[in-house]
Amino acid sequence: MHVEQISVFLENTAGRLAEVTSILSENSINIRALSLADTSDFGVLRLIVDDIEKAETTLKNHGFTVGKNRVAAVEVEDRPGGLNDILQLLFEAGINVEYMYAFVRNSGDNAVMIFRFDQIDDALKLLEEKGVRAIGGSTLYTL
Amino acid sequence: MIYDIEFETMPREALEAIQARRLQATIERVCATVPFYQKKIAEAGLKPTDIKSLNDLKRLPFTTKQDLRDNYPFGMFATPMENVVRIHASSGTTGQPTVVGYTARDVQTWSMLMARSLAAGGATRGDMIHNAYGYGLFTGGLGVHYGAERLGASVIPVSGGNTKRQIVIMKDFGPTILTATPSYTLHLAEVAAEMGVSFENLNFKFGIFGAEPWSENMRHEIEKKLNIVAVDIYGLSEVMGPGVAIECHEAQQGLHIFEDHFIPEIINPETGETLPYGETGELVFTSITKEAFPIIRYRTRDITSLNPEPCVCGRTHVRMNRVTGRSDDMLIIRGVNVFPSQIESVLMEMSGVEPHYQLVVDRVDNLDKLTVRVEVGEGIFSDEVKQLQDMERNIEKNIKDLLGVSAKVKLVEPKAIERSEGKAIRVIDNRKI
After folding, report:
1. Partner of B363 for a Cys bridge, out of A45, B170, B173, B431, CB 3.0 to 4.6 A?
2. Which of A3, A5, A6, A9 to mutate to test the interface with B (most CBs of B within 10 A)?
């Protein structure tokens, strides 16, 4: 039960992020969540969008380097310690979180976090066993 | 001071007679001992006996850096290895250096020519030479070293690097002559200033600088900051090393080429046609006294012109003007030769890296800085910043390992590198020299 994320290489120059968002906007692609990691020279923009294929093709056509990864959208109980419980489970099982960021909308009463794992299949299996809910693509894009 | 009055001030006629005799002997020798020359000269339809005068030189074929690479490592040696007492190598392309050898007599000749050079630059017996050229495979350090000893000066073999220690040595030992690359010299000046050491209180009188291109402006800056007279020295390991040509401190107007050992020509780099004195073109050298590694019409790729006017110093040897550029795309970064193709081969050997790159050279605080911009294609792209940074460091390490030069790698977006008429611009040299 994974979700597809696209990532885009950006030079750290003025207007590059706006260039991406304007291309997506012109093509009626909705950004559902995003995170930007950067260094002094470059940045990596990660996006969850409602139409992965279209976003990927369009950005590539505009000359961007685009990657596609499997990530997990995990429901996190909206209470103190909710995230910590999940991280502890993963830590005990020896699964690394490469990075994570928050999804904009809630799923019912729960918050949603996007996780990038080094071993996503093991992580998803573990979470399922422990009763933590991961949301699939089609559900997530329409939350 | 003129170290070798007889030869350095010899009338042109006598000098040319010696050149013609030595040229003939050299051609006979290479045709007998080096298969490469034997074949190439025969292919040009020539016999060694066809070379009768200096005018016949232009009938001989050129030798290029590629020829030296094709004969790596010892194929161009004209003497059995048992006669070779020294081997040097210059940074070449694609991990393959150019290897040169010297017999005992070659080392003596070189020492003598370096003694001439140091004397022309103002050194005499009793001077103390602070030699900050690198010692090792590079010919700079040992070339100056042997010349200094031959001249009878005291030489401090300090080599490159460890700049603060160098300043302390300058203060404590009181050397009178500095030999270094011009860019390192300006770096020394800055470090000295930071340490509160003023060159006015040091004993330096003259400096002999080379191994990289520099300008009149840099000369003025060095002379002002170090309170010395600065002269230019020229050489390349394929021909001998430093001491092929030297500026006299009296005129500081072009470098006298030691024509009793090397015959210079200026050619049109496109057509190969020999150009008359005064015209600008590519400098070509033929060595006429070397034993282990003679070289015939070697294309240096350096662009300059020759000046036959008599010089105030009394030397009769022709002068070459400052080298103003290259007829290929070679860059000299802190004394190391760098070809864009070398960087390309480093990138090509790394999986996933596309050969879309650009070299940007800047001079920051008087030191050359090389930045390599590499376009990020899908082959190396990752959504994790850490992996992209690892990629940058890996490329930097491979460049350092192969070329011996530190570079900063900067990942850029696809098509970020300017293309001119479809051809990528590989080199941007921002150095104002």
Report:
1. B431
2. A9
Tokens in use for B373? 């911009």
**Tokens 């809630």 found at:** A106
Burial bucket for residue B349 (CB in 10 Å: 0-12, 13-18, 19+): exposed
CATH classification code of B5-328:
3.40.50.12780
Q: Which residues of B touch A (CB under 8 A)?
A: 376-378, 381-385, 388-389, 410-416
Span B279-335, pLDDT tens digits:
999 999 999 999 999 999 999 999 899 999 999 999 999 999 988 777 787 888 887
Instruction: Specify the 3-state DSSP secondary structure of B239.
Output: coil
The reply to whether CATH 3.20.20.140 applies to domain A3-68 is: no
Percentage of chain B exceeding pLDDT 90: 75
What SS3 state is found at A2? coil
B191/B251 Cα distance (integer angstroms): 30
Fold annotation for B332-429: GMP Synthetase; Chain A, domain 3 (3.30.300)
With CB atoms and an 8 Å threshold, state whether B383 touches A39: no
CATH code linked to domain A70-141 = 3.30.2130.10
Please list, residue by residue across B97-121, b when 16 or more beta carbons sit within 10 angstroms of its beta carbon and e when fewer do.
Answer: bbbbbbbeebbebbbbbbbbbbbbb
DSSP string, B68-137: HHHTTTTTT-SS-GGGEEEEEEE--STT-PEEEEEEHHHHHHHHHHHHHHHHHTT--TT-EEEE-SPPSS
State the helix-helix crossing angle for A16-26 and A52-61, rounded to 10 degrees. 120
Residue B209: how many CA atoms within 13 Å on its side-chain side? 27
| Residue positions counted in chain B | 433
Residue A46 at interface with chain B, using a CB cutoff of 8 Å: yes
Partner residue facing B414 (CB), from A38, A65, A67: A65
Q: What is the ipTM of this complex?
A: 0.87
Say what the pTM is.
Answer: 0.70
B72-127 confidence digits (pLDDT tens): 999 999 999 999 999 999 865 445 789 999 999 999 999 999 999 999 999 999 99
B interface test, pick of A16, A65, A117 with most B CB neighbours within 10 Å: A65
